Sequence to fold (162 residues):
Amino acid sequence: MATLGLIEYDTASPEVRAVYDDIMATRKTDWINNFWKAIAHDPATLRRTWQSVKEIMAPGALVARTKEMLYMAVSSSNQCGYCIASHTAAARKAGMTDAMLAELMAVVGMANETNTLASGYQVEIDDQFKTGIPAGKEPGQDSPATFCRPCSNTCRGLLSLR
Fold:
């Protein structure tokens, strides 16, 4: 059970109902999920969080499926069961397949493992990684010392997503 309980639509203040109405209209649904009901105890937090989510998750340079899968990856790393479930459902609705989910979790697991190793060994960042790869350039173009060269299949796979 949520620490402060859930605020249902029929018992919500007009301020909270206005946010609930916007959530339902934006998402084209007739229900409010528990996350919003739980944070509705603080209407300012509800309004601010919904506004941010609505803006960030709106159509943009990344398609909805990619955004939801990124949300899943971060939620998995943060061990937020609620967000994993919510964004898995949204990613599936946006077209994520079982194979995509399996590959995403493999990447998340590998990233967590290698991040832990790099942190634990206090690995210095290579100069070549500090400059990044300018848009439209591939590793090895121009000066070889300027751009990252993929060091593993993981890096090559990530570079191919650009």
Q: What stands out?
A: The radius of gyration is 20 Å. The mean pLDDT is 88. The helical segments are 14-27, 34-39, 43-56, 64-78, 81-93, 98-120, 127-131, 153-160. Residues 98-120 form the longest helix (23 residues).
